Amino acid sequence: MKEIICAACNKGCRLSVDSDLYEVSVSGNECALGRDYAVSEYTNPVRTATFNVRVRGGTAAVVSAKTDRPVSLAKILPASRLLKKLYVDAPISEGQVLFSSLLGEKIIATSSVEKADNNE
Ligand code: SF4
Asked: From 57's CA, which of 33, 39, 105, 115 has a CA 20 to 30 Å away?
């Protein structure tokens, strides 16, 4: 059995989740949303992942970024490792797609970085 705090609304019900070969059972939920949340957390937890991506030729060394949707936790560490080997060129605008398919996920900038003035 696994205990989960439901984050589907701000009431924060304490859920208990268990499974056998055939089904996942949930208790402690006060509504159907909570059951769906618990099943998702138990079988395939997802999060919106955030990263820092290296920038080449910019006024900052890195730009903050995130996945455009919640992704499986199993993808986040491999994506983070891959991003450490990559960089993007400045200028970068907030909301810009930095990578359209990194492990199948879209990575977008959450801040802007200006192009560095080479005359300084
Ligand atoms: S079970 Fe329902 S009421 Fe309870 S926290 Fe989750 S969404 Fe809210």
From this structure: 105
Topology at the third CATH level for domain 50-109: CPE0013-like fold (3.10.530)
CA-nearest residue for atom 3, ligand 1, is 30
Q: How far is the CA of 110 from the centre of ligand 1 (A)?
A: 30
Q: In three state form, how does the secondary structure of 16-47 look? A: EEEECCCCEEEECCCCHHHHHHHHHHHHCCEE
One-letter identity of residue 25: S
Residue 120: pLDDT above 90? Answer: no
Instruction: Give yes or no for residue 119 having a pLDDT over 80.
Output: no
The whole-number pLDDT of residue 21 equals 85
Q: Which atom of ligand 1 is nearest to the CA of 9?
A: 8
Q: Give Rg (Cα) of the chain.
A: 19
Write out the residue limits of the CATH 3.10.530.10 domain(s) in the chain.
Answer: 50-109
Q: How far is CA 78 from the centre of its chain?
A: 12
Instruction: Tell whether the model's pLDDT for residue 59 goes beyond 70.
Output: yes
